[in-house]
Amino acid sequence: MGQSGGGTVRLRRGLTAAMLVAAGVGALAAQDNVFRVNVRLVRILATVKNTAGQLVGDLGKSDFQVFDNGVPQELAVFEHHTEQPLSISLMIDTSASTGIDLRYETDSVNKFLRALFKEGNPQDAVHLYSFNYDTSELTGFTRRTDLLERALKGLHSDGGTSLYDALSFASESLEGREGRHVVVVVTDGGDTTSAKTYRQALEAAQMADAVIYPVLVVPVTNDPGRNTGGEHALVTLAQGTAGRVFEPTLGEALDQAFTDILRELRTQYLLAYYPKNLPPAKDRFHRLEVKLRRPDLRVLSRSGYYGDAEQAAGGWKPAR
Q: What is the CATH class of 24-81+269-318?
């Protein structure tokens, strides 16, 4: 992957690390909400809302309880409104079905980018892709809005929709980067031409510890003409990574969707702990559960990871 150049690099379909992952981690296929960690410290990003759906960002460490395979854990790190750097893979659907709506979508994306870089961590960066039948890397990770805006202006719609291929490529680009990993995908429907499957796309995002935020642009609100199956797949992809789907129409509603994504990213809690007192397990999957002491609030977080607990030695061996 490039760094911050403005050239377009055509990516070859079907040759991603997700294929190797699928072969080496068979147990992952049985778990939809699973993440893998490669460090001793287990990190959890959490979003908290009240019963009205409003974000709650003023909780303290004592408000949270974390359980690893049912065993309570002691938080070693707690940050509210965490400023851990954001690495965002931003994907724009340029398939033929986007048509005349593409200009409105890129206008809203530009507003999102300017707001993202105006505040937050100075290491926040965006990796821009477009996708139709193929996936194209438009920039590497960059903070240069001029490069990003120039790339967006050159987009045009054509071809099918290889959404799952694009998600796999975008997720892999996030692996190894510090801080929080996010995939934002702007699309109008489901997959039609991918070599990858839904399962492989989800696994790639899980292996990258990435949260998926689909922005499902729905200019047609009645059922005829809508890809309801594809929309449902996007919902389950988001849920499987602790994200959520936004379903705006064009114009102000689309602008608001990007504003809401940015607000959620700025209101996340970071919880982290060193696993202790874990009983021997038959498999390497660890079920995570985050609870709040306040019953009027709900929390959204990842539900598990893979790792080895070495109880006899009193230590912790992370997944490899």
A: mainly beta
Give the residue extent of every domain in the chain: 24-81+269-318, 84-266
pTM confidence score:
0.78
CA atoms within 13 A on the CB side of 178: 7
84-266 adopts what CATH topology? Rossmann fold (3.40.50)
pLDDT in tens, 238-270: 887 888 899 888 888 999 999 999 999 999 999
Residues 61-80 have pLDDT tens digits of 999 999 999 999 999 999 98
Checking 228-234 for CB contacts under 8 A at 24+ apart, the result is: 229/190, 230/163, 230/189, 230/190, 230/191, 231/189, 231/190, 233/190, 233/191, 233/198, 234/185, 234/187, 234/190
Instruction: Say how far apart CA 254 and CA 214 lie, in whole Å.
Output: 12
Q: Is 160 exposed, middle or buried (0-12, 13-18, 19+ CB in 10 A)?
A: middle
Residue 189 near residue 161, CB atoms below 8 Å = yes
